[in-house]
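To close the section, here is one more complete example, presented without commentary so you can practise reading it yourself. The ligand is protoporphyrin IX containing FE.
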Amino acid sequence: AAAPPVLRGAALVRFARAVARDGPLEAMREQQDKLGSVFTASLLGLLKVTFLVGPEVSSHFYLAPDSEISQGNLYEFTVPIFGPDVAYAVDLHTRNEQTRFYWDVLKPRSMKANVAAMAEEVENYFWRWGDEGTVDLKQELEQVLMLIAGRCLLGREVRERMLGEVFDLYRDLDNGTRLISTLLPYLPTPAHRRRDRAHRRLRDIFTEAVRSRRNSGRDGSTDDDVLQRFIDSRYKIDGRPMTDAEIVGLLIALVFAGKHTSAGTSTWIGAHLLSDSNQKHLAAAVDEQDQLTAAARRDDGAGQHRPRGGVDHDAIQQMTALHRCIKEVLRLHPPVVAMVRQARSDFTVQTREGEKYTIPAGHTVMSTILVNHHLPHIYRDPHAFDPQRFAPGREEDKAAGPFSFLSFSAGRHACAGESFAYTQIKVIWSHLLRNFELKMVSPFPGTNWSAVVPEPKGKVIVSYRRRAN
Ligand code: HEM
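Output:
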């Protein structure tokens, strides 16, 4: 097998300029047209990054063991954010056990307990909107998601503080996580100093919550939140429970992992569903909610006066039209646009056209999620918003095998919060569609590519009017 074609010198500079000018999707597609679906960018021969475009060349990246392709020290930048007791700051064995804790507390079966708490937060939050008005949707959704995170992950003790100090502290963590931070996480910049201060303060607040829960004598029967489930978790190797510091580190990480990913996705849903060209998709989503509300009214015989709230876990499972809208937004705007790994041994990939390339140990390897999601041999008319592409009979994401839809990554390091994310977004959007007529009054937003998790650029202004019961 051959070495992949190389992008270097002036061509590499032109590529970097194109990324800055046109965004990563256009720039990557242009390179793919020129060089094919596997190519290496070489920075003075010192740093070699091999791009893998498309599901056909992605299986080793996602499925090979850490001994062959690993996260290496590429995630060092998370250590000042999550602290010294968890994730990439600890040895691989402890990290794997901690990953199991994430998966245990966030597994789909645990979502049942969360739906009621999420719905209560959502109803209370949007009750404040009154009958009609205009809002910045992005800001509103960020806030309600913080309240949900507070309630379902951290527990009632911290929930009360989510919109004040904790919200601002997370902003400092975010602002201390830019491109430069991924390369030089310990550079003493003002933003990094603010990040470190925010981390220390969050540690204090969350530690107080863990201690007060431990001292309260309450247990899983009174508080079924992630904090309680972490307190009850045990390491397999020696049966010990987690220390306060470990629980705090995992909680900081969970809120961080879910915050922008969910807020950006929820806002893009508004931008797409409320734009004039997607009226039929909006109508289908509203119709689905009205049918679910009518069915719930029939079931409990509450007649026409039942409020349009009251979603439960079963109703969430039945929201297939809304589910497809969320998935389509995640295809068009994956919050994590690319994943990076370090090749620890040589490996060979075969492209769709049958060419074989060997990627040598030592290369940084990048899976281009955003580009995979726009490949025309997988997705028909890939730039169009078309939730029906996931409907039975079409299922475009399955046609080319796995790795065509990668918003939650895949394989051994996939997102542990996928089910939590879908659930909270459905609770929010089902409430909005059931209770309000909404209209986007600002133009369709562009993408802010400079954020670590690209989000809608600027404000997304929406006017609303409460629907009659
Ligand atoms: C990891 C996407 C929401 C918890 C990841 C990864 C992706 C991802 C791509 C892999 C990152 C990497 O390896 O570099 C998303 C998207 C979300 C979302 C698109 C929302 C739309 C959430 C939420 C939570 C969460 C709400 C928690 C409540 C996690 C955790 C990991 C992770 C714990 C690390 C898993 C591990 O280390 O094995 N997520 N995420 N995510 N996500 Fe999410």
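Once you have examined the tokens, check your reading against these statements. The chain has two domains: 1-65+338-381, 66-334+407-466. The chain is about 50% helix and 10% strand.
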